[in-house]
Amino acid sequence: MIEIKNLTKQADNKLILRGIDLTIHKGETVAILGPNGAGKSTLLKVLASLIKPTSGLVTINGLKWKRNYLQIKKMIGYLPHSSLLYDHYSPIENLVFFGNIYGINDVEQRAVRLVKEVGLSFFLNEPVKNFSRGMIQRIAIARAIIHEPEVLLLDEPHTGLDQGAISILNNVIISMKEKGTTTLMVTHDFKQAAEICDRIIILKNGRIADDFYIENQNLGFVSKKYQLQVEGAS
């Protein structure tokens, strides 16, 4: 599904990604862990076609990034640190707007259904500017999946969410997985990574320090792996 070969990204004479080689299979849910500055968000931005790599090859569903980035963009749902929502719009107005960009049929019905899925039906027509951080994040998640993307890229999606909202988000991710969506999630929350992900990738200094599958939601296993690769080494 996603093939990355010898990917590098340099900015301001600093090498942020240093020769990433990675294969992600269709339907996998993958957590990307690592300390600040490891290159996690940069990797997601490259995959989302928001920034160009300095060198290397990125292929998504058989399409090469350099030749097909517009087509690739349509396949991807992306949730960055910012919500990308229009704060004077309501949830339904935001979702209809973004859904129309992707040419979604019956966009209003889908938008209403997604607002319900993220638990905000009572606020369907309220301006987003009046929402709490957690409520905005819920609608931003709905925005990222309005077009039922084949690839979902999430950059610290649990930030600002209470426990109820975390459960809603996890259920959305699991539901997308059941539809065959491939998900990459940058996170500092080991617990959520262990609960919903099949696989863990640890980045350090722009390189893959470890790449392993996880079974039985084994949080302790994830923590030990991380400590070994990041905290236990300089």
What does this structure look like?
This protein is of the alpha/beta class. The chain has one domain: Rossmann fold (3-Layer(aba) Sandwich), CATH 3.40.50. Helix content is 38%, strand content 26%. The protein has 8 helices and 10 strands. The protein has a 6-stranded mixed beta sheet with strand order 6-7-8-3-9-10, with helices on both faces. A 4-stranded antiparallel beta sheet has the order 2-1-4-5, with helices on one face. A hairpin with a 2-residue loop joins strand 4 (55-60) and strand 5 (63-64). The chain is globular, with a radius of gyration of 18 Å. The relative contact order is 0.17.
Percentage of β-strand residues: 25-35%
CATH topology: Rossmann fold
What is the distance, rounded to the nearest whole angstrom, between the alpha carbons of the first and last residues? 34 Å
- Residue share in helix: 25-40%
Number of helices: 8
Strand order of the largest sheet: 6-7-8-3-9-10
Unreliable spans: none
The number of domains is 1
- What is the CATH homology-level superfamily? P-loop containing nucleotide triphosphate hydrolases
Biggest sheet: strands, sense, closure?
6 strands, mixed
Structural class determined from secondary elements: alpha/beta
CATH class term = Alpha Beta
What's the shape? globular
Please give the number of β-strands. Answer: 10
Q: What CATH architecture would you give?
A: 3-Layer(aba) Sandwich
Radius of gyration: 18 Å
Averaged pLDDT: 92
Order of helices and strands: EEEHEEHEHHHEHEHEEH
